[in-house]
Design goal:
The protein is an alpha+beta fold. It contains 9 helices and 14 strands. A 5-stranded mixed sheet has the order 3-2-1-5-8.
Length: 440
């Protein structure tokens, strides 16, 4: 059966397609777009993209115009003759071979230049940042400052940053769409990536992602990037390099028992002071971990994130597979939490600078975890509720998490075993949450 040509129907379909494209183009600003030149790397890639798009568009228009012309010029007619054959026309074949070759030259030169520019070594005075990928979270080390943090990356505007990309397990890929990059983290190899955030960029927040499938929580492996002024970065770094400062709550005068207090003990010239536990009366129990006054804390203001950069706030819903007594939220005792934490399995996975029993590096460094905006690899906001659920059963909150379920009575989804001996009650979880939130 021969179909009939219906121009009106074809026109309707074409109009609908044009409207769809128009609506897609008018969708507003995309917060994770790669087409905003916020760094020299992104500017170079964007300029190359524009050139390739220009020449590709010219080729497309030329080819389609010739195709449409041929279709109408040589369409079959009842009284038409046989079109003249051009096979073997040397001049024509040389022409349609030379034109693509010339176009490829215009494409190849800027492409090769951009490759050499972005693959070159970073400037010697660049800020060095070690990026270490884990399943499924990010570790960031600033060796020039002695800082280790997790899932939140602070970068000074106008200063080149050289990233050393490593992985401790499977392949990952480091990607900050608005800044540039995407480069893989490969086992037993160190890759490098560098760029310079624009000097006039201002203090802003951005999203970062893993762009290489790395397991069941690949899509949950996120991080936050804060581009800040040089002064703000200096304030942030000065505080972050300090040991954890935990102000122990003063107990009621006249209590019958004593509580452990922390006092510095010299550990030798040039080394970090060790901590010593001593018995003191509750009335004078206080944190004395630092000999000098602590540097005031500065982190990217939460109010600005909520007002200007809401697209960086995690929106992951809480799991319904576990429950928590929410009447305990915000009512935990930080000192009890400190004691619980120091006797729990947590110390076998995490580090808290200034506490010698907490120097493991299996999980994220928790030295200043209370000052961070997100937890769980950027999957949840760092607030009392989400942190409580996370500590109770991380595997229920994030598929494949190697952090085990800690809540008493919870069935761990990986081992299928119920947590009983050593498990934490909701009240104990609330205490540990209060302690971790005090580490700022």
């Amino acid at each position: 059966m021969v179909g009939t040509f219906r121009p009106r129907r074809l026109a309707s379909v074409a109009l609908l397609g044009a409207l769809a494209l128009g609506l897609a183009a008018c969708g507003g600003e995309y917060p994770n777009s790669t087409f905003n030149p916020n760094s020299d790397y992104n500017a170079a890639i964007d300029a190359l993209w524009d050139k390739l798009l220009f020449w590709g568009t010219l080729v497309f228009i030329g080819v389609e115009a010739a195709l449409v012309y041929t279709i109408f010029k040589f369409r079959r007619r009842p009284d038409g003759g046989v079109p003249k054959q051009v096979h073997g026309n040397t001049a024509l074949e040389i022409t349609w071979t030379a034109i693509p070759a010339v176009i490829l030259i215009f494409i190849a030169i800027p492409t090769v230049r951009t490759i050499f520019k972005t693959q070159a070594k970073a400037a010697p005075e660049a800020l060095q940042v070690e990026v270490i990928g884990h399943q499924w979270w990010w570790e960031f080390r600033y060796p020039q400052y002695g800082i280790t943090t997790a899932n939140e990356l602070y970068l000074p505007n106008g200063r080149t940053v050289n990233f050393q990309l490593k992985t401790v397990d499977v392949l990952h890929s480091f990607w900050i769409p608005q800044m540039g990059g995407k480069r893989d983290l490969i086992s037993n190899r160190t890759n490098y990536l560098w760029f310079t955030p624009n000097k006039d960029l201002g203090s802003k927040a951005w999203n970062g992602f893993c762009a290489e499938f790395c397991g069941p929580s690949h899509a949950n492996m996120r991080f936050r990037v804060f581009t800040v002024t040089a002064d703000e970065f200096g304030q942030w770094a000065a505080h972050q390099k300090q040991p954890a400062s935990f102000p122990m709550a003063t107990a009621a005068v006249g209590a019958a028992t004593t509580v452990p207090a922390v006092a510095p003990v010299p550990a030798g010239a040039g080394s970090t002071p060790l901590l010593q536990v001593s018995a003191v009366t509750p009335a004078v129990a206080a944190d004395t971990t630092a000999k000098s006054a602590p540097v005031p804390m500065w982190v990217f203001p939460k109010e600005r994130i909520e007002k200007e950069f809401a697209f960086t706030i995690p929106q992951t819903p809480l799991t319904t597979l576990i429950s928590f007594d929410e009447s305990l939220l915000g009512k935990g005792d930080a000192e009890r939490g400190r004691q619980l934490y120091s006797k729990s399995s947590c110390i076998g996975c995490h580090a808290i600078a200034g506490t010698p029993m907490n120097m493991a590096n299996v999980g994220p460094n928790l030295t200043h975890v209370g000052s961070r905006h997100t937890i769980a690899g950027g999957l949840y906001p760092n607030d009392t509720k989400h942190l409580s659920y996370w500590i109770k059963s991380a595997p229920h909150m994030k598929p494949g998490s190697i952090m085990p379920s800690l809540g008493k009575g919870v069935t761990d989804p990986k081992t299928k075993m119920v947590v009983n001996v050593g498990g934490l009650t909701d009240a104990e979880v609330a205490d540990i949450v209060a302690y971790l939130q005090a580490l700022k």
